[in-house]
Amino acid sequence: MNNNSDVFTVIRNNYSSMSKGHRKIAEYILENYQKASFMTALSLGQTVGVSESTVVRFAMELGFEGYPGFQDNLRTAMKAKLTSVERIELASSQMDKNDVFEKVMSLDIELIRETMEHCDREAFAGAVDAILHAKKIYIVASRSSSAIADFLRYYFSIIFDDVLLLKNHGTSELLQRLFRVGKEDVVIGISFPRYSTQTTIAMDYASEKAATLIAVTDSIQSPVARKAQYVLTAGSGMVSFADSLAAPLSLMNALIAAVSLEKEKDINRSFQTLESLWDEYDVYEKTDK
């Protein structure tokens, strides 16, 4: 399967050549993708009236190694399609109002665990190296991903001299602020479902300018990842209409830590200066020792 194609596109492109049983599966998924994304191969087969093995073959004929890979792609594509209203409805159907605290905390823990297991370590190391050697670092994000971008920009601004945050801009303003980007620069695009069109446009433009692209997203199928040299994936979940940012923020924490270890001397000098300024201007409350 083409990594730039989501599962809905793949299904539609292959529909005309499918068997009768596979068409039944395809039609059900396209019409009921919210439900289908959480079904096992057995339950999906029972729902549409085919065998479990038929569902597995359906996934494999679409180019997946098996049903789990197909289901992961379906969930990624589903999250990108859901409106805020649909997110609320889906969360309500899956969450007990008397157990919200434990459900949300458990979801965040699981997403961090998945991120540890699936994030590409070579891509992570490559991203760290690219950031350390960048002339200028651009961080691009929109909507809820802006919170992650703010976190990253705050700490990178302590480490590096030239960090520019571009968030929640219209397309024309975004490209205007990005137009000097070049091959010595790094552009970090942060986007999670529902994916931001502006962030994707910024990454495409920076690619044309030969900048090094780092995508921080939930899947290699994400549009922000399609031209990136380094793709850092973090588990992304839904809590009502709000996105779970626990895993993405943990990933950014790891990125900051890895970079800071390589710039330890510079950071120590920076913090010595900052601590003096903070003390002089009473930035932090003083506590009795």
Largest sheet: 5 strands, parallel
Proportion of residues in helical segments: 55-70%
Number of domain units: 2
Low-pLDDT ranges: none
Mean pLDDT: 85
Distance between the termini: 61 Å
User: In CATH terms, what is the architecture of the largest domain?
Assistant: 3-Layer(aba) Sandwich
Q: How are the strands of the biggest sheet laid out side by side?
A: 2-1-3-4-5
What name does CATH use for the topology of the largest domain?
A: Rossmann fold
The H-and-E topology, N to C, reads as HHHHHHHHHEHEHEHEEEEHH
Question: Which word captures the global form?
Answer: elongated
The amount of beta strand, in percent, is 5-15%
Tally of DSSP helical segments: 14
Broad structural category: alpha/beta
